[in-house]
Every structure is written in structure tokens, then in C-alpha cells.
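User: Run a structure prediction on this.
Assistant: Running it now.
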Amino acid sequence: MFSRRSRDIKSEQTSQQQTHHTTTKSSFKLKKFHFPLFNNTAKTAPAKDSTLQNAHVAAPTKTTTPSTTPVTLSKKSLSISRQTIVHRTDNGCRRNTIWSDTVDIDLVSNLSPKELNRQEVLFEIIKTEHEYVRDLRLIEEYFIQPIKKAETKSNKIVVPENLNKVFNSISYFLFIHEVISNCLNERQEDQSPLVRSISDILLAYVWVFRAYAPYLIHYEEALRELDECIRKKDKLGRLVRKQQKLASFRNMPLSTYLLKPFQRLLKYPLLISNLLKYTDKEGFDYENTVSLKTKLDDVLNDVDEQKRTYDNMERLRELETRIHGLGHFRLAVNNRQLLRESPACQNSLSLKKQPSLRKSLTVMSDPSQTSSNRRHSVRNLYTLECNDIVLLAERTGMTKEGQPTYKLVSRPPPAPLDDEPVLIQKSDVFE
């Protein structure tokens, strides 16, 4: 009897110790993983809104009895999973990361849906900026620097003109965006787990995006030059093919990495628009975010305008080479835009109804343009229409590239003496 009673007392003490140990361990876990909301301006989610709780249901532990009731996810909770961004580590491993997966579930459950989405957008901006810098560094270290060493060693220019300008832009982007990324990372560490603002950082560097104009201008020609070097297997082509086989490039060609700045430039407006969408109008960062979006839109519109101006000037220069009889007259001047290059009578209803007229109808050329008067068939006449002049020309043939060649029929207008157009040399534009 004594021995049995002793065993019962001992068993009861052991049970109490285990219960006390379990309780202490549970409370320790809560203290360890709970993040206080320092200076948090976000509103607390209403108690009846179970969207966030359902979206982040924790796996059952040993001390929790699994519920037999199925968990239903609403559309809002599904939208959270669609915001997942792809992140690649430095060793090439791929993993999906969103902000809510990096913090305690208690913190997530205490945020309103709007603030949760805002934190996800902030996290995506910081993370993708880091990935962008990583890609630029790959181009710099594995292509630009080895190519420069090869040029120095051989004392010979290896890189074509447009590709060289693109490489110079990438080196500059790497320098600036490393600074931006470091500032964003420091802000994330200082304000963790809730980042309150990054708009002031981006506002300080929004001018950087003007430097993307030369890159966009020379990008297409640079790709053609790169493809030509690879096709010919010259010194640059062989070096590029060799470097592309390295494991660091994840089986992607150099042309794919050269597309990164263009993709990043397009993504910034979307990210900032989402950030503004989820920023509280009464919050301290709303005005800065509005200002950031306005200035970013202005800068990108200016970059787009520079690209259109350059492309238009190139079209005018190329058209000049296909027109015989221009003399000293120049099409490619400031503020002139090429609108269309089309058959002169394509919209004539009479010719559409009576195609035979197209063969018989002729016009007389300007006597000052030819040594003898000559009639030109209407079916070969084209109008070269700009915003300030219209030239009438006769189609005479085709170039190797399949573009029509012309002979001028009308007399080009003289340039006003008090407003002489300023000619722009190709080498002077966007060096």
C-alpha cells in the first residue's frame, strides 16, 4: 500500500511538472516571435473580418487539435497569393517570397487588408531593386569588363558603336542603382518589420531615369550588332558565346539581360501606382507618394519624347538617301516630323472606280527640276508628307532593304532667311 501510494504521488508530481513546462514553453514562444507595432499608423483589422486569418492558417502542432471544418478562402485572400514575387538567391536557387511569409503571423493578423497590401508592395519594390542590381552586376563583371580587357590587350576596338553606348549606360545604371538599393535595404532594416516609407528615397533619385533615354535610343541597333557579331563568330561573338555558357547566367543569352533595364523602366510606374493605391490618404507618406508618381510620370514622358524625336530624325535622314533631286534641301531638320509616305492618288474615288485611268493619267514635272519637260504616270507618284511641307516624287525603284527610291517631281520650298533650320549631325545626337 505504501509503495503504491508513493508511486501515485510521484506520478502526480511528474504530471504537474510536465504541465508547467508545457505552459512555460508556450508562453516563451509567444514572447519570442511576437513583433511589437512600433509607430504603426495602420488600422487594426475588424474582428469579424476573417480574411487574413484564413489566408495564413498555421499548420497544426502537437498541442493543437486539427479542425475538421474545411477552410474557405475568399477572393481577397486569393489575391494575396497572386502577389508572390520570384526571388533568386546568389547561388541560383529559386524561391518564392512575399512579405507576409517573413514576419510573425500575429503581426499579419493585426493589419488591415490595405496596409497588408502596402507592405507587400514595399517589399516587392525593395526586393526587385536588389535583383535588378544583381543582373546589372552580372553584365558588368562577365561581359563588359572582359570585353574592355580584350580591347586593351589587342589595342583594337571590338565593340560596335551602338552596343558600346548600351554597355556604357549599363555601367552607369549599376553605379546609381546600387546606391538606391543600399538605401532601400537600410530603410527596410531600420524600420523592420513594418516599413513606413521609401518614397523620399525614390524622390531623391527620380532624375536617374532620364539617363535611360540614350539606352532606349541605341538598344535596337545594339541588339542587331550583337547578333551580327555572334553570327560572324568574330572576336566579340566568340567571347559572348563563351561567357553565356557560364552557370551564373542560368542558360539565358546576353540579349535577355540587355532587356532588363527596359523591363525595369516599365515596371516602376506600376509599382508606384500600386503603392499609391494602398497608401492611406490621411497617412504622412501620401503626399510624398503622389509627388513621386507625378515626377516619375514626367520624367518617363520626357524619355519617351526623346526616343520619338530621335526615331523621327533617323527616318527623315534615311528618306533623304532615297530621294534624287533634293539638291541642297534637307528633310532632317529640327521640329520636322514625317507623317506619311504614300501613293499620291490612293484615296481618289475616280481612280478606284476606273483603274484604267491610273495608267493613262499623267502630270507634268517642274521645268526647273529637269532639263526637259516630262510627264509622269500617276500610278508611280507618291506624296512625302511632313508636318510643314509636302513633296511630290516619282517612284523609280527599290533598295536592297526593300524600300522605294524616288525622283523629286515638285520643287522643294526654300528655307526662310530669318528662320534657317538648324541641321543636326548624326554624331551630335545622344552621344
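Residues 330-428 form one domain.
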